[in-house]
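Fold sample X.
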Amino acid sequence: MKYSRLTKEQFEELQQEFINFLATQSVTADEWKNLKENRPELAEMELDVFSDLIWEGVLKSAKYLEHISPQHMHLFSINNDHMHVIAVTLKNKVDMTTKEGFNWLRENLMDENVAFLQAKKEYSDDRNLDVFKLIQQGSVITKGDLYNYFNKLIN
């Protein structure tokens, strides 16, 4: 398995897609039930293959990631050949994960306690795996509103 297995909730949301996946492998509902009961290791492998297939699609289409903690915000633009990251760091005790803290940041962008940094990061041999690792570390896929706002602000 290249990524991680989908959660039970994710499988439930993707139930029809999983049924279609099994159908492409000529596995009927009865055969799937039999596989789960009598060959659980093969059923587990099918779940893993499906999970990786879903992750590949999600990661391939991801364009922006955000990772926000109390004092740091990392905004990623996922390009074809590299990532561009904008980092915002608070040097005071303001917690930007709270509504009050984020409002403080919005109103005090040019304050001496706010630092900006940007960088270009090349991918390893596997772009999708690089993106997946950021998600495992707490980043979430977004539409890029924050990234685009800060990119215009500092560039």
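Fold sample Y, listed below.
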Amino acid sequence: MTLFLSTFENKIDKKGRVSVPAAFRAALSSESFQGFVAFRSYKFPAIECCSFSRMQRLSQSVDALDLFSDAQDDLAATIFADAQQIPIDGDGRVILPKMLLDYAHLEEQIAFVGRGATFQIWEPKAFALLQAKARASVKEHQVTVKLRNDLSPGGGTRA
């Protein structure tokens, strides 16, 4: 399973390129597409990113919804119509489309934020504010998680 951990900040250079953290490149290295898929978050002023295989699983999940239902149509328009395949060049850099940069208010610095099976790209100060609120909420509500016993990506138990 692809796993994205930690937060990394990098500068956008004058040509609009940004280095993808080495740990994220390593996590993506087993994929057939050498890059990632990116689309506007519908929840945050951020860019949602995942491996191509994760995007295929997301597509299958949306396909499982009722055909032509409002939910299926809305999710397809929100996610897939907006999604961009972002190739990583030989030097480990990407160029993000202007539409995505504008949406997330990215100009000089980018925060790559690991979220387990996915990652997000944020304006660093905006993410710092969100992270502080999230930490306070977890503490206030004493949120916990039950550790799953299965390890397979589809949720079933491994043989």
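Sample Y note: The CA atoms of residues 146 and 155 lie 14 Å apart.
Also: The chain is about 35% helix and 20% strand.
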